[in-house]
Every structure is written in structure tokens, then in C-alpha cells.
């Protein structure tokens, strides 16, 4: 486990009188262990990661033990539940011997595996923060019954709080992921023109992401009258001359998310669309200027809305103007008008403004920003201006 994560989680334990934290959500498990299981992602099979002052532990399905061993997942204690029938040739391979030992010692249930991990870490009394975000009420009750003298309290909010401030390594990952997304989008912009369909453009974007070592997220590349549909799936509609294109695309790199939003036009822009884009850009830049350590997030929202209105787009409304980004595409803090939580140095936020006029147009911009000790630094390298396709 990296020192930054250990420091953040230890502070949570100290501040809230907890003996351990147990993660169930994919991003929280990755935060504690760096493990990302396919079994959980596909079949929603439970996975539990434990953080305590004495070390870390991971409990996963037996079918994933080979992955954890081969990937050298760095935890102090590894356990599994359920059985996985297999034939082992462990005479020459230490990894296979380790896999066999772990599978043959499997616990009958996730709750039993968790109890074993907590026991191995010396956590036998006191309060434990259990991440409820991937547990049904029945699963919570089974774990509570199995852990006996331990007191369970909700832990999801503790993980959200810990993950807000990023380490230098995490900031580097986020910057690399963002650069990858922008490069892939630049390739689409360079090749996009009348006649290309949304599906062709989205496929091109995804292939460019993969070419650069990333994992693409579903891409919004909406053209013409579909640009004002908030979340359209890519279609066979072909771009026509003088139409707008709205891009909202993302990807992950090493588990860290990045996303970019831009607006383009195939030819001479409509004056109303151009004016709306100018106003949205003004609002975005006002939000960026407002960001700094200690600034309430509501002030960032207010700055964006006031500047957009001041630039002439009086009809602009926004429930939020962005959020944190990291192991998940949407994290704390939420840049909302009623949230007064102060920003902290080391947070990475995606500031986004979108204006939709149903039946006519939509413009959207998003920038990723690092909160620094002296203000903020945009991590994007691409231009925010309205893109004019040749």
C-alpha cells in the first residue's frame, strides 16, 4: 500500500475511533489493495479489502486467487471464499503452490473470510467502518452476525473522504490519462467531416485510446439535432455540413479516470451557438479562477453561473458545475450551489459547463484541474475554443 493512502486512512481511523475499515466498492478495494477483479465487475461477486493500523487484507472469490497471486497484490493477508475445483502442477512453481494453499484453505462465505482477515490483523473488539455501498441489507446482517463482538458502522463516506486528496503518483496517473484522452480526441477531430457517422467517430476514438494503452469509456459524439440529447448512444447518423458536434469522451489508465468535453462545428458556426459557447467558456474560466484551497465549492458554482449570465447567456442553469475525479469518474467534492465544503490542495476536479436548448443546440466544455497550495492548475493541454472543422 502506498504511504499516502495509508496516511489518509489512518487519519480516518484516528478521527473516528475505528479499529479498521472494510472496503466493498471496486474503487475503494483498489484504493486499499490495487486489486481490480473481473469476477466482481461481471458477476458482482463480493470482494472485501481491510485496512487497519497493523496491516491490510483482501478477501476474494477462490476463482480470482490466481490473479491476485500472479499480479503480486501487496497485502499482508490474502483469503478466499467458496471453492474452485482445479488441478495443480505445483512441483516447480511457487506461485501454484501458494494458489493451492489459499484455495484449499478457503472460507465457506465472504463473512467468514472477512472474520479471518480481521482476526489475523488483531481486530477483535471495537468499531469497524464497513463500506455499505456494495452490500445489501441482508449481506450487512450476515457480516454483523459473523463478526460478533465488533461494532459495525457505515464506512462508505470515510472512503470518499480519504480519496478526495490525491497523492503525487495519483496526480501523475490522472494527468497521463487525460493526455491520452486528448490525443485520441484530436485524432477524431482531425478525421471527422461530413459523411462520417457518430458510430464511426466513436469507434475511431475508442481504437485510438486502446492504441495508447488506455481503456475507453462509452463516448458521446453527437451530431446535428442529436447534439442536444443529453446522453445519446452513438448512432448511424452521418455528420452534415454546418452542423454542431458535441464531444464528451473519457478513458481509464491504470484504473484512473479522465474525461474531456468539447464542442465543434462543421463549417461556419450559427451566431447563437457561437455566442452560447463564448458565454460557457467565460463561465468555465471564471470557475477555474475561483478554485483554490479553502474556497467553498459553492463559490465555484456561483462564479461559473454569474460569469455565464454576465456574458449574455441569461437562460443558463446548472445543478452542478463539476466534481472530483480519480478511481471513479465522479467523486467528491461535488461543485454544487448548496455545498460549502472547502477545497483542499491535492484535490483533482473536473469542472464542466453545458448548455442545452432542446430542439436547437447544445454546447459543453470540461477541464480537469488540480487544486494547488496557491490556487489551481489546469491539467488539460487542448484548446477550449469552439473547434471549427476544415
In short, what is this structure?
This protein is an alpha+beta fold and about 400 residues long. It is built from twelve helices and 16 strands.
Structure commentary:
With 390 residues, the chain is of the alpha+beta class. The protein has 2 domains: 162 residues, Creatinase/prolidase N-terminal domain (Creatine Amidinohydrolase, Chain A, domain 1, 3-Layer(aba) Sandwich), CATH 3.40.350.10; 221 residues, Creatine Amidinohydrolase (Alpha-Beta Complex), CATH 3.90.230.10. It has 12 helices and 16 strands. The strands form 3 sheets. A 6-stranded mixed beta sheet has the order 4-3-2-1-5-6, sandwiched between helices. Strands 7, 8, 9, 10 and 16 form a 5-stranded mixed beta sheet that branches. The protein has a 5-stranded antiparallel beta sheet with strand order 12-11-13-14-15. A hairpin with a 2-residue loop joins β9 and β10. α1 crosses α8, α6 packs across α7 and α9 crosses α10. The N and C termini lie far apart (49 Å). The model has no long low-confidence stretch (mean pLDDT 96).
